[in-house]
Amino acid sequence: MRRIIVVATVALAALGGFTVGLLAAPGDARPEAAQGDAARGARVSVTYPDVADRWQGWQDRVRASGVLEDAARDLRATVSLPSPLVVEVTTCKDGTGYLAGEGRIELCLQDVRDSDAELEEAGADDVDATLEGIWRETFFHEAGHAVIDMLDLPFTGREEDVADQFAAWRLAEAGDDEATGALLSSAYEYQLLAAAYEADPTDEHTSDAARAVNYLCYLYGSDPDTWSGLVDDDPLTQDRADQCTDEWDRLRVGWRDLLAEAGALRS
Question: Could you tell me the pTM of the whole model?
Answer without folding.
Answer: 0.83
